TrEMBL record, chain A:
Signal peptide: none annotated. This is Iron-sulfur cluster-binding protein. InterPro entries: 4Fe4S_Fe-S-bd (IPR017896), 4Fe4S_Fe_S_CS (IPR017900), FTHF_cligase-like_sf (IPR024185), Helical_ferredxn (IPR009051), LUD_dom (IPR003741), LutB/LldF (IPR004452), LutB_C (IPR024569), NagB/RpiA_transferase-like (IPR037171). GO terms for biological process: lactate metabolic process.
UniProtKB/TrEMBL annotation, chain B:
Residues 49-228 form the LUD domain. The lineage of its organism: Bacteria, Pseudomonadati, Pseudomonadota, Gammaproteobacteria, Alteromonadales. InterPro entries: FTHF_cligase-like_sf (IPR024185), LUD_dom (IPR003741), NagB/RpiA_transferase-like (IPR037171). This is Lactate utilization protein. It holds the Pfam family LUD_dom. It comes from Thalassotalea litorea.
Amino acid sequence: MTVKIQEPEQSESKYAETARAFRQNVKKDLANAELRENFHGAMNYLMAKRAASFPSDDELETLRNQCKLIKQRALLKLPYLLEKLESNLQANGIHVHWAETITDANEIIAQVITSKNGKHIVKGKSMVSEETALNDYLHARDMEILESDMGEYIVQLAHEHPSHIIMPAIHQNKKQVADLFDKHIDGFDYTTDVDALIGEGRRILRDKFCHADVGITGVNFAVAETGTLCLVENEGNGQMSSAVPNVHIALTGIEKVVELLEDVPPLLSLLTRSATGQAITTYFNMITKPRQSDEKDGPEEVHLVLLDNGRSQAFADEELRQTLQCIRCGACMNHCPVYTRIGGHAYGTVYPGPIGKIISPHMLGLEATKDLPTASSLCGACGEVCPVKIPIPKILQRLRTESVKVHSGSPDELKGAGSNRKPMEATIWKIWSFIHKHQGMYRFSMWVATRLRGLLPSKLGVWTQVRSAPQLAPKTLHERIQARQPRG
Amino acid sequence: MVMDIFERSQAARTSILNKLKQQVEGADYSKLPAEKGFCYPQLPVADMLENFVEHLQANHAQVISVSAENVYQVAINQLRERGIEKLLCGKGSVLAEPLQATLDSAPEQTLKLSIYDSHLADCKQEMFYDMPASISSSRWLIAETGTLVLWPSASEPRTLSLIPPVHIVVAYASTLHANFATLIHNNQWQAQMPTNVLLISGPSKTADIQQTLAFGAHGPKELIVLLVNDLI
């Protein structure tokens, strides 16, 4: 009766390999004009929507400060809030599971499904389930798992993964979606009309909702005080997944817990306005208990799976801990000049854009993600729009340092630290640093450099592929100033 | 011996909590900075009500002002206009009796009132494929965002407002609150969270295809709010 479960695999996430291919991915996606047009249009749209939803700078700044402090308070109390959340959920009749790795999370979910003889699963939008590659895991165990968020459904049909955390299919235009439906859906009457395309998705997914045994969703906020799981959505698929099947499994990262119910309204307001420029989403769903004996709907069993997957590593460093303040609004990617140009898939990670660059190293290790922190002009836009004021540019610089420092092997070290260290580069910087610390050496080397400037090669590796080589001046600045200022 | 996955969950719990506690054990919470919320201007009730209606309409809900006596007739008329002949109502809902009485008083009406009186599992087929409309009450309203707060119960199950393509909500102006924060605070939700609370601010929608808004993604395509101004 039970599915044969293999020994726990400690294999790495499939995203480690795609993240390593970052440079090749970028090259490919930058050359795709249609893709670039799709992202360009979408980012302009989302930026304008966000701006219009914050008419008052004063309100925006007050809310950002408030929400930053709410999340920092939750993080400072994190282990105790997790315990409180667990005991309140259990008192409410909700089962709580803990997983350190993505494989463990998947296995817990598969076991819960198997114990209820589940075969047909519908899933509301959950980025954490992308993190664990849950669909692949359940497919391999002969279970049908269907994405029900329209964007996620499209992405699943195309055998892709989301290119944006809020709008998963943003890389596709309606023509591409129509072609996809035409290829995969029997009897699809070809059209590029968006209403008709959504209608087709609705028809297919309603049938799945009606017959599913298990629903899986993510969580936007988990309230420790009351043991409440909150879901933010517009489509109604989160409700369909959490209210119609007999079992509801919610999967979330350990950082989603907030202390108080009254912490929710400001966070919700900032989340929806930062994400899509909406004052509120169509649905805000607060789940506190499974179905009670007199009730007619809702799941008989509710499970929550709490996943670490590298979050405790970020937590162990006060600067990097701020990464965990994230409420997953996507504003940083919408405003990122790099994301807008290369798109979400080029990163090769589950979370793309600026937040992806600072969270993925904890999930996949710095070895697989060493290129990501460098893919930034440090323009600062992400930090300026972040609703919870994560200093993303500063953390990017910190991760750059971590990736090139000497590998110490200490247990406190970030996974993969030092993996971008190149002996030649390190030696050059050592010499540079030595020269700049010794005045005589500095003057002498500058004198030599300016006099021998003609020997500087015109080709300087990748730098000169798209730029001309810098020219040294014939005299140092010191010499020129001295010449200009008459003594005495 | 390989640990069972649920035993491993306990081991993971201990490991995760230990790692976290190692970092923040003994932290001094009194040093946490004061959190200041934004002071929203207090608006007169009439303005709040206007904001409520505007937001709902902007989100494509249809808002109809009705008198307390008229609610049920207007609901019936709205369905007749759409050619809908069946309306789902919760068993024991405050709306059930007056609706039936209104229907009985006019025998020429073709609308049939269907009562949600069995478990969803036993009526799924009908709910998904043969239930064109539903009606429910709302417990509170939020002005700032144009939001209806539903407090589902045995008499008004949560799927009542989710599965049928047309959803009618009866809303009373006297239940209006300025915003979500004051609503939670003034009514001390902390002490009384039910199985499920739903905030609804329009018909179901999506912009997942090329940022083009489409309604009726998975939930109702139409949301009709019958607003009774019982403040006057």
